[in-house]
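Re: the request from the purification team.
They wanted to know what the chain is likely to look like in 3D before they choose a buffer screen. I agreed to run a prediction and write the result into the notebook, where they can find it.
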Amino acid sequence: MEVVQFVTSNTGKFKEFQEILGDGLGFNFVHRALELPELQAPLEEIAVNKCMQAAEIVQGPVLVDDAALAFKALNGLPGPYTKEFLQKIGLVGLNNMLAAYQDKTAQAICTLAYTAGPGKEIKLFTGSVEGQIVVPTHPIKAMSFDAIFQPDGAHSSYAEMGSKAKNNCSHRYKALMLLKGFFLKKGYKQSK
């Protein structure tokens, strides 16, 4: 069984990946914790660059995940800089950025980049979910922006809905379903 390394320093992303995709597609996906430098660029360019770097380091097939939160009132910011905003100002700061605006709509985006190895073609798979930025109603112990993002049609934030419900509708779920479709089309078989 071919090994594909899921390269991320965020163990929560790999856990979600496993819960959503399981052991399917005829691959053995393993977690590889690497902190890769990120370009200051659009999300797709960041994902491609991280994928190229990761493939060079591991010398084999890799999958990388880059997530973003785009506020409509701020013309898509923090967008590809979400991780840096979270590190500098936290979830409360992100929420406060919208305090002066009536429009609290946002989009959660996940871009996956896959390559079979160094120098090979990189495939992108992007999933997005429309929603609202909400004030957390409980202590913040959620991954990334989960405590402040509420998908349209839901009555709670990602963090409040729990991992099973989130993993059936999230931006990462949508991106992984595109990845799964790509592999199935290529002839890989879903494990039972």
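For the purification team: Residues 43-58 form the longest helix (16 residues).
Please add any questions underneath this entry.
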